[in-house]
Specification:
The complex is a heterodimer of chains A (about 140) and B (about 180).
Chain A (H helix, E strand, L loop, with lengths): L1 H27 L11 H13 L16 H15 L4 H12 L14 H27 L5
Chain B lengths: L1 H20 L22 E4 L6 E3 L8 E6 L4 H16 L4 E6 L3 H11 L5 E5 L3 H5 L7 E5 L5 E6 L4 H19 L1
Parallel strand pairs in B: 3-4, 4-5
Antiparallel strand pairs in B: 1-2, 1-5, 3-6, 6-7
Classes of the chains: A mainly alpha (about 140), B alpha/beta (about 180).
């Protein structure tokens, strides 16, 4: 009984290894002739994510637009992670862990970026205050001299 | 009172902002590496000089070492080469090369002709190791401490001056902490 029981984990391991190999050969074929991901939902996510990631060589271009080799390496990385079933968050985390938050065009809301995100609201509030004070002063002016 | 103070405060704020933002000594392309203080990403790659050998940083655990990212296509790497050779002659720490986006034959030829400052040179075939290290250009030079953590990253060509003032003190400090 014991030797037989022992063969079970081995059998499962072999099965998993075979499935893994299958998954790998399958993922290798998941690009169509134009180099796009065959799964259209993955392709849509791929395009959105690569537009959101900055190319660090030419810093105002996204890795979707850039022709430099690093951008193409990073596109390959995103493609592979999508095929492996990684979430958008996991892909962004992979990139920010290596390149810092600067790699994202839209910085996430955090203590450090609070001023960036808050600035428009502060400006709006300031505008409201100024308009209010100006309007109040005008209303106090005599209409006719 | 407010009428004078407010514009004056705004003026001071702008002066401070411009003093930082327009400082000509500030390299606007330099990015803080998120890797600082984190474990150095591991790699095991083909040796540029000998295809049958593997270069891995796992064997360097417990030692302070330098990782220098370069390529034969990189003009600034040619500029720093003399400085690297001189640094290698001092035998302070092992210098590991990471040959990036390159052809192995060209890299071999470069090292044979110009001299080899590296203890070992890893060949990053497909740029994956470079991505793990957050490389976005060459040359880049990293310093790893005895606990295997990245403690410093320097971009732009290495010089004797940079080595003297940026690297040597950090190496000494890392050895003090690690001992």
């Amino acid at each position: 009984m014991i030797p037989r029981a022992r063969t079970w984990p081995l059998g499962i391991a072999l099965l998993l290894a075979a499935l893994g190999a299958l998954a790998q050969t399958e993922s290798a074929t998941r690009l169509d002739a134009n180099g796009q991901l065959e799964d259209p939902t993955l392709q849509v996510r791929f395009e959105r994510i690569t537009k959101e990631l900055r190319c660090l060589v030419c810093q105002n271009e996204s890795i979707a637009d850039s022709n430099v080799e690093l951008a193409s390496d990073l596109r390959r990385q995103v493609r592979e992670m999508l095929i492996a079933g990684k979430s958008d968050d996991a892909i962004f985390k992979f990139m920010t862990d290596r390149y810092g938050e600067f790699v994202r065009f839209g910085p996430p809301l955090s203590a450090k970026t609070l001023l960036i995100w808050g600035a428009p609201f502060i400006a709006l509030l300031l505008g409201v205050v100024i308009i209010y004070r100006v309007a109040r002063n005008r209303s106090r002016m005599p209409l006719d001299e | 009172m407010w009428k004078f103070l407010l514009p004056f405060a705004a003026f001071v704020a702008l002066v401070v902002l411009f003093a930082f933002g327009l400082n000509p000594n500030r390299d606007i392309h330099a990015l803080p590496s998120p890797l600082i203080g984190k474990p150095a990403p591991e790699f095991a790659l083909m040796d540029v000089m000998d295809a049958s050998k593997v270069v891995s940083n796992a064997t360097l655990k417990g030692q302070v070492y330098v990782l220098n990212v370069w390529g034969t296509w990189c003009f600034a790497c040619r500029q720093e080469h003399e400085a690297l050779l001189e640094i290698a002659r001092q035998h302070v720490v092992p210098i590991i090369g990471l040959d990036y986006m390159d052809e192995r034959e060209k890299a071999k030829q470069w090292l044979t002709q110009l001299g080899n400052p590296y203890n070992a040179v890893a060949f990053d075939t497909d740029g994956r190791t470079a991505i793990d290290w957050g490389v976005y250009g060459a040359p880049e030079t990293y310093l790893v401490d005895t606990k295997g953590r990245v403690i410093f990253k320097f971009i732009t060509p290495m010089t004797a001056d940079v080595w003297q003032h940026e690297f040597l003190p950090r190496i000494a400090a890392a050895r003090r902490d690690g001992a």
